[in-house]
Prior knowledge:
Bound molecules: adenosine-5'-diphosphate
CATH topology of the largest domain: Rossmann fold
Distance between the termini: 31 Å
CATH superfamily of the largest domain: HUPs
Number of strands: 5
CATH architecture of the largest domain: 3-Layer(aba) Sandwich
Helix content: 40-55%
Order of helices and strands: EHEHHEHHHHEHEHHHHH
Strand order of the largest sheet: 1-2-3
Amino acid sequence: MSRIFSGIQPSGELHIGNYLGAVKNWAALQHQFESFFCVVNYHAIIGSYEPADLVRRTHEMAVGLLAAGLDPAVCTIFVQSQVPEHTELAWIFNTLTPLGELERQTQYKDKASRQEQVMAGLLNYPVLQAADILLYRADVVPVGEDQVQHLELSRVVARNWNARFSSGAPYFPEPQPRLTPTRRIVGLDGQAKMSKSIGNTVGLLETPEQIWDKLRPAVTDPARQRKTDAGEPERCNTIYQLHRAFSPAETVAEVEVNCRGAKWGCIDCKKVLHQHMVAELTPIRERAVALQADPALVQDVLQAGAAKARVVASRTIADVKEKMGLPLA
Ligand code: ADP
């Protein structure tokens, strides 16, 4: 069976971009692949943060993932820092990653340009990500579109290591992305990728009232000033895209006709979307409420997940060290 790995930063509550671009897919794929899903807290300490907040956000992210359908009886779900082999392999991979490849990563350039002092961890982030994936020798990585370039780097690292140290068949697979049809969800501003750091998100666990408060003012087709103006769904980046993600095909067809023909206003259209979103998200929120009431259960799941992950991780590290002339402990 092929193996999948994917990670998510403990940035607090999951948003529907994470859900539609990645996590919903994980919940489906866990039944087809041997699956490892990781809350990547070492990635989250790049930049300033409060330790107590990080503890809380890590826990909340685990709650969100379990509520969204990851089943610890089927997949392995764990926290990165509880499996020390991740950072061990990252150091090894640092010695095989060309600096130029890291410097041309779009996310690095973006984030570095906004900072006065750039830490080495920001540059080396994709090396740790390569280690995360290759530690499990995963060949499929279900992610959103923003991660495709980083995955290319993981393939470079795998290739470089294999060329230097594999004898016979390549030891590390070259991991391939697995995208969803909703690979890039646009935020409520109708402009940028939905992202926590921009503040244009809808939280996966928000109540129907909170979701409505966010949908109501969300940007729609900018050319549609009045209800009587004919709209163009393709120009309505957020609401139309969310309809396609949450509403059945008949509703999406109705949206297209009613928007183009100015048969309803954007608020009518948003009300229908709201209904379909609430129908899909309510069971998730209810599961989260139950999990929030039992923090010890969530911690037990993560401990057991880390123990399962370490079985595979320690095997890989032992192989890697042996092939590289590094004695094991
Ligand atoms: P964020 O960008 O909110 O900090 P992460 O970087 O932790 O989230 O991403 C977790 C997963 O969610 C990744 O697979 C990423 O590709 C996916 N993802 C994040 N934002 C979006 C989005 N707006 N649309 C689709 N997928 C997304």
